[in-house]
TrEMBL record:
Keywords: Cell membrane, Membrane, Transmembrane, Transmembrane helix
Segments forming a coiled coil: none
Primary location group: membrane
Membrane topology of the entry: Multi-pass membrane protein
Protein name: Probable membrane transporter protein
Keyword Transmembrane: yes
UniProt KW Transmembrane keyword: yes
Pfam families named in the record: TauE
InterPro entries on file: TM_pro_TauE-like, TSUP/Inactive_protease-like
Localization, UniProt: Cell membrane; Membrane
Family assignment from sequence similarity: Belongs to the 4-toluene sulfonate uptake permease (TSUP) (TC 2.A.102) family.
Length: 247
């Protein structure tokens, strides 16, 4: 099982990091399909998110695609809410219900990116509304903490629709957002002594996503942002999400 997941996690990290995402939705979908324990799923997905986007944040910052003021505006409310969401006690049935809804929504957002989002940067960026996007980021952070999904898959289309920044900068902002919320989620789990880490399971997966994430973030920051990310994983996430909801 671990060998197959390592290969799939590597591909997910490569694809997602190239678009500024951590891949938490796909990691959770894959582990759900392999019937991994739900506490182990959540901890492993958050750890993999951190491993992938840490390199991405560095590369985006070095290449000038991470406006720090906007990054902190988006994260100011989301970080404490991600901690609170992770700290909330959830039964297994409630977790999988929330995760099924979150994965299904993630697939819809990814399909939007693939079929409706235009190539290139918005013609005219809109200024202001920092408080509004901060509140939206807070809601996404709460969902992130409860499910283990970093939240970038939801934040990025919202920022694109609002013409918040250029496509490259939004990828950098999404990486930063995922990083701080995933760390907050892990801290929330640690606070209630709920982090589940099995080295023989999570260790190889972390190594796979670190390698894939470094390659993907370099491709994004220095070459192009590949739009095929959404199409490559949307069906998998949709299938896993709907399967959870049916069960």
């Amino acid at each position: 099982m671990v060998t197959e997941l390592c290969f799939l996690f590597f591909l997910v990290a490569l694809a997602y990091s190239a678009a500024g995402f951590g891949g938490g939705s796909s990691y959770l979908a894959l582990m759900a399909l392999w019937s991994v324990d739900f506490q182990l799923m959540k901890s492993t997905a958050l750890l993999c998110n951190v491993a992938v986007v840490a390199g991405g944040v560095y590369h985006f910052y070095r290449s000038g695609h991470l406006p720090l003021k906007k990054a902190w505006q988006l994260s100011l409310v989301s970080v404490p809410l991600a901690f609170a969401g992770s700290y909330l006690p959830l039964k297994q049935e409630t977790f999988f219900l929330l995760l099924g809804i979150a994965l299904t929504l993630a697939a819809v957002f990814m399909c939007y990116r693939l079929f409706f989002e235009k190539e290139g940067d918005p013609a005219a960026l809109r200024s202001g509304n920092g408080m509004l996007y901060g509140v939206i980021g807070g809601g996404i952070g709460l969902l992130s903490g409860m499910t283990g999904i970093g939240g970038g898959i939801y934040l990025s289309p919202v920022l694109r629709l609002g013409k918040y920044d250029t496509a490259k900068n939004i990828a950098g902002l999404s990486s930063f957002f995922i990083l701080v919320n995933s760390i907050a989620g892990l801290l929330g789990q640690a606070a209630k002594h709920a982090i589940v880490f099995k080295w023989d399971f999570a260790g190889p997966l972390l190594l796979s996503v670190i390698i894939g994430g470094q390659v993907g973030s370099l491709l994004s920051a220095r070459i192009l942002k590949p739009r095929w990310v959404a199409g490559a994983t949307a069906l998998l996430i949709l299938y896993a999400g709907v399967r959870m909801l049916i069960k």
